[in-house]
Structures are given as structure tokens and as C-alpha cells.
Queue: 4 jobs
Job 1
Amino acid sequence: MKDFLPILLQVGIVLGFGVVTLAISVLLGKAAKRTPAKDMAYECGMIPQGGAQPRFTVKFYLIAMLFILFDIEVVFMYPWAVNFKTMIHTHGSTIFWSMAGFISLVTVGYIYAIKKGVLDWKKS
């Protein structure tokens, strides 16, 4: 328990500061009148038009997911490529064939995405 005392003390100070700050704000703050004009979003002096959240097609999300998948592929491949020479001495050709299997699985996913038309922007 002695080791955790500084952490508990810091958590207590942080929580106390947050509660005291909010209490002072409520007690000393002045409540303003709410009107529709004041509640409207400020757009550089212009009256906002349209909804708050524009609607995106599913294609944007599919491209984002594909980007994340292939970005993670690079995250796995870069350290493998940097350490390939040292790993080939310890693991033999197993290290090469394991990465070849990984790349083939990712390639199958990429071909599937192309066949489904995920990357075809002109298709509706």
C-alpha cells in the first residue's frame, strides 16, 4: 500500500481540482439566456446551411478499412525486412515462407476487394 500512496494522492488531487473548478464555475458563473440564434453553430459570420453531419457513401468507409488493412501489412513487413538477414541464419527458409504465406493471404483479400468493386469509383 505504501507504494501506491503517491498515485492515490495524485488521483485525489486531480479529482479534487476538477470538482472544485466545476463547483466554482456553477456558483460564480452567470447563466445566459438561450435563444435559437445563440444556439446556432457559428460559421465565420455566415448562416450555416445543411445538416451538421454530411452523409458519406459506404465507399469511403470501405476504402478506409482497406487502407488500414494494407497499412497494418506494412507494419508487419517492415521489421521483417529489416531483420531478414539476421533471421535467415537462425530460422532458415521458414521465415521467408511464413512471410510469403502472409503476403499471399493479403493478396487474396486485395483480389477479393477488386472483384467486389470496392475500388471502382464510377460504379454506383
Job 2
Amino acid sequence: MYDNSGHGTHVCGSICGSGVLSEGKYRGVAPGTRLVVGKVLDERGDGSTEAMLEGLEWILEVREKYHIRILNISVGIGTMEQPEKELVLQDKIEQVWDSGILVVCAAGNKGPGDGTLSAVGGSCRVVTVGCHDGSYARDKPGRCEAYSGRGKLGSAVRKPDLVAPGTDIVSCNAFFYKINGKYRNAYTAKCGTSMATPIVSGAAALLFGKYPEMTNDECKERLQYTADDLGLPWNMQGWGMLNVGRLLE
């Protein structure tokens, strides 16, 4: 698998990077977790509904062969001009969930307006991750929480499910190089709900590692119930900020 945009490499590193080139400083949340990677975006980070559907179908085909437990979707999809495509996409994502895979997807970066979630994040059978950095970057205009996608106030499906940091996340750089036997630019910082999502996926991987018989529904409930309430509107924070320590207790 190749990465000509750098997005996927950064996401993968956040989940399970070893941090070896930083002497452990920039390790992923769940180092050593095995990855099965599907590429659905081009070199500009753009994609299509059709490519996403093909990727989801492929996951269903190989899930037993590779023992897939978690699907991380760090892709935001805005409002579609053809609503029927959105329904087809959500249906396929729910098929993945019903197969026993925990689906963790980004809330998208179209916020902060009401009802600005990514089209893949509205289902009750996904874990939708918004962005919040706590006290970090509180005075930074470009902080991720300022544009994190939000659910609809008063909706029967209350989204996002929880939030995680997504501003200035340092992870693996696809465009590193080597000079005189030393690696340069091995890590890079990126922002967005795409960066918050793998933090939750990594935490879920740790939980499945501790409780291998846990179902995806049980994992979702535990992610929600152990989150820290930030005292913000539900359509911004969901159940609150991911708390990895409490999650694993």
C-alpha cells in the first residue's frame, strides 16, 4: 500500500506507531496493533462515494481472514447533492457494524453550525468522533473544535458520541527522507477530526486487547460512559472527552 497524500500514514501512526524515530515520544495510542489498510482517497485527499462503498465492501470480504475488529474512517463527507447516495453509504457502514466490527468515524470539519456532521457519522451504529483539545490551544483561532462537525440539536440520534484531541497532533510523515544515514522529517503535525478519530480507535484497540470477547456494542457503550463531561452542548461534545485511563479500568 502506498500513500501519496500523507493523510493515511498520519492516521495509522496515531493508532499504532512505534515512535522508534522519536525514541518513543511520538508513539501511537496502541503500539503494535496490526493494520489492514484500504486506500479510498487520491493524492489531494479527495475521494468519492463509490470509492468508499468499494472500500467498505472489501472490509466485509476480508474481515474474517484478517480478524478485523475496528474500522477507522478518518474521512469527512459533506452534505450530498444526492440523498439516496448517503442512505446507501450509511446502509453499507451499518452492515460493517452488524458484522461485528466497531466503526469509528470522523465528525467532519464542516462545523460549527448545527447539523454539520459528516454524512458517514449520523448512524446510531457508528462511534462518531468530534474534536476538542481541552485547555490546549484554547486561544488559537484555528483549533479543531472551532470547525468540528456537530449533530442536530433535538435529534433522536444524539451525535457526536464523544470527542478527542485533534489540533497539532504529531504522527508519522509519509514524506520523510534519509540523509547521511539519519531520517529527517519523520513526524509532522496535522489538525482535524480525522486526527481525533484514530485516537479513539487506538483506545478501542487497547480495550479489545484487554477484553478480547467484548462486542462492538459493548465497546461503544464503554467509550461513551467513561468519557469526561466537559459541560458543553451535546451536539458539540456528545458524552464528553475520551478518558483512556477510565476506559481500561
Job 3
Amino acid sequence: MSKTLIIYSTVDYHTKRISEFIAKYLDSEESIKIVNLEDINEYNLNHYDKIFLGASIRYGKFRKELYEFIKSNRSLLNKKITCFFGVNLVARKIEKNSPDTNPYIIKFLRKSNWKPQITGVFAGNLEYSKYKFFDKFIIKFIMWITDGPTDTSKDYDFTDWDSVEVFAKKLNSIN
């Protein structure tokens, strides 16, 4: 039985939600564990055949812990079956919703110097109702600049769940 570890790095838990959604479509013969990157030190990565990593963008950056994890584990990751998916609001735009066109994914792969077998990107969600005043103000300003929604009385889920399903099923084909 193959063992898969899905690691997520998130601020507002949408990347965890996407990770859980992906897990539902993975081969039922696999043993699957979903773990927050913050808790990864409790797990032995050598015990897993596949390591999938998902991370979200906040204020234009992936969290530094993500880069530290990859740097510390790059040689092991290069020996495993791996995938990476990023979650960001820029991916809501059709011209930036693929790994080849999404600026955050392109920059991440270059900066991390890691080559996962499969890479994906998904639009995230915008939960104005959960943000504190400062975050709400900054995100609203960013949305205004990028022609996104600025009505803070609503929340928005830009995730194309059909695309996430297709991506998850594709993961079953990598060996």
C-alpha cells in the first residue's frame, strides 16, 4: 500500500480545505495523511512514498516556513513522488490560472529550486467577514487595483472545484 502525505501551509485554512478535497479523489488503496506544515516535525517523511505540498499566498508571498521546509528536505523530496499546488487570488484571472502563467508559482519554483512532478494552481477565497480591519482594508485596496470584488459585506470563493478534481485525479497517474 502506497503512503501519501499531503502537507498544507495556510493562513485562512482554504488550502487545508483544498487538500482535503484532493484527498477524496486519490486512489482508495493509498494511505493518506493530511498535515499542517506547522506540525510537520512530528512526521517522518521517509515513511511516505508520495509527498504533496499545497501553500497559499498572503500579501504576495508564500510563508517563509515553506521555503525553509523545502530547503531542509530538498534531497528527500527529489527522491519521492511529489507535487506542489499554490493557492492565490491572482489565479481567479483566466490568464493567470495555470502554473505556466501564474507569477507566484513561477517565482516559487525558481526561488525554491525544487522540481515537483506535478504543479498546480488554484484561485483561493476571499473572506472579508473574517478579516480584521487592517487586513480587510489592505485586501480591499488590492482587489480595487486588480479589478476584484470590493464589497466587504460578502465573501467570495474563486476556487474552480472542477479543476481541483481534475488535478487530484491526475495525481493518481504519477508513479
Job 4
Amino acid sequence: MTTRPAVLFLDRSTPPHIMTLVLLTGVSALAMNIFLPSLPNMTAWFDTDYRVMQLSVSLYLLMNAALQIVIGPISDRYGRRPVILGALAIFLVATIGTILAPTVEVFLFFRMCQAVVVAGIVLGRAVVRDMVDEAQSASMIGYVTMGMAIVPMVGPVFGGLLDEAFGWQASFGMLFLCGLAILALVWADLGETATARPTSFRAQIAEYPELLTARRFWGYCLAAAFASGAFFAFLGGAPFVGTQVYGLSPAMLGIYFGAPAVGYALGNYLSGRFSVRVGINRMVLWGCLIAAGGMLALVASHAMGLRSAEVFFGFFVFVGLGNGMTLPNATAGMLSVRPHLAGTASGLGGAIMIGGGAALSALAGMLLVPGSGPEPLLAIMLATSLASVGAIVYVMMRARQLGV
């Protein structure tokens, strides 16, 4: 279809309003980063090492990736609406568990359970692809994922302030309230968009080879994975760098965490504004080049002795900008290689991207030790940014071969 179907707000018989999708993806993003300024204080609270506490990021991302493998096929088989509602209910229970956790092990268990909220991101994109065609989906996904841009801007700021005022648990209390509100909104507004399919779940999983043998699908996945890899490494390592290298307080660290989100918001706007006109492949290419250029500039500045929190976090505006242009368009490409497997493609592609992010986040946490400085983190982020350029160049070459 080439035009968006009729939408009536708070009417479960029609597709959801775009603002519902924005808020749904927003709460998923909030769960990922609101507590990051509290990681050093949480390390002290649970009387553990930073490397252990940092697992609240990498294990969350790992579970996030694993869930995406099954969420897509389940939603293709049973529908978007019941899967999203069920995921939000589980998320609320898990959030209460993180607040009441007596030990770091219990906390990490419930933190992994919180990852089920990724259904909001996976199926928010799939709902868009259910509603509109490839070019329009890239544009609409750009607007929908504005929630993933705006929330990371304000989430860590509120998280840092809540930590200083009430302790680290307050951030998870805010997550619970936001999740409850989104559950009510989704219940009232999100009509089913998936076309009913008679195939079994096993048959859905059996369709993975159709995606995994599509070279363009892999190209889009790797472009998205490498482009976002710098950001996930940032999530794993920046709290350590901010507090241990630059001596930032939780509140100030939360403010600085907004730097990549500012760029990401602008990149998402550009995707929504220009993807139809420019084309998804060129938008991905420009996004990857901007992110890689920002990392090269940061590494060069560090080598020249410009080593301050403002310089370190400031250049992440370009990483965010590049990601905001790359991810909506690469996602639209993933979902459009095999349109009849949109939910499966969204889940599998997201799993590849987030799984790589989990590994990079864990690697950043392992390499950053007292006295190491930010150099290991910079090396990881530069390498992944450059790799993303190579991936999208391959996609464009493959597209020319196929004449698409």
C-alpha cells in the first residue's frame, strides 16, 4: 500500500496513532539509559565492582537481543497487540523486582527480565511497515524513533537528579510509572495491524534462512550494527570515563549523556524529512560517514591534547546524528528485503544489532580500568564506525548488481 490507513486516536479498531508508537519506543529507550548516571553509586550500594555493575547494561542488551529473535515471529503469528501488551506487563513486574532487589545477583536477574520491553521497539517498527510501503516506512520510522532520541536526552538527566535526591531506586520507580502509563495507552489505542497468517511458530522460525541468505539483509543489519556499536560501547564505558577520568557527578553525567541524543534527534528528523526524496541507501551512507567523521575528529582531538569532558561528550553529537540518519533507513531496508516477513526481519535484525551492542558494551567495561583513560573506548568506537561505512557501501554495490 502507498498511503497510510485511517487512524482514530484511542480507537482499538484502527491502527495506532503515531504518538502512541513514539511513546512506546520511548519507554523502551528510557529503560536502557535512565539509570546510567547511577552506576557508580549502585556499585557502592551493592558492594561490588564496576565491572559487575556494568553487566546491568551488557546483560540487558544480550537478553534484549535474544528476545528479539522470538518476538518478531510470535507477533507475525499471533499479532502485534497481544505481544506488546504482554511484554509491558512483564516489564512492570520486573521493574518492581529491581527496586526491591537485596543483592546484585537478584538485581541483575530482574534487570534481564526488564529487557522484554524491547517489544516496543521491535514491533513499533513492524507496525509501521504493516501500514505503509518501504519509502514511507523509512520516513515514518524516523518520526516514530524520535521517542528513542528525545528520551535519551532527558532520561539520564532525570536519572542523575533523582539519584542525588532520592537514591538510585528512584530511577526505577519512574520507569514503573512510565511503563504503567504506556500500558494503558497501548490498550486503548493500538489496533491490530498484522495480517493473520495460518503458519505455526515453528514454520515462522523456519523462514529465517530466507532472510539469512539475503545478502542485502545482512548488509543492512551490519550497517546498523556497526553504526550503533559506537553508541552501545558509549553506554558501557562513558559512566566510567565520566566519573573516573573527568570527575563528573551523577547529575552532570546525566546532562552530558544528552549529547549523542541531541544529534540523534536531529538525525531522526532528517530521516523523516528527506528519506523518501533521497532514498534509504544514500541516507544510510551519509549517516555512517557523519558518525565515522565525528569519531575521527574526537580521536584526533584527544591525540592533540584536547582532553576534557566537553570535548569527549561533545563529539558524540555527530555519532548521534549519524545514527539518527542510519538506523531508521537501515531498518526500513531490513524490513523491505522480504516484506512478508517484516516482524521476523525486525526481530532478527534487531537481535543482530543489539547482540553486537551487548558484546561491545561488555568489552568496553572490561577494558576500562582505573588509570586506563578513555583510549580503549575511543578505539572500539572508531573501529565500529568505520566498519559501518564498508557495510552500506557493500549494500549499494549489491543493489546495483540486482538492479533494485
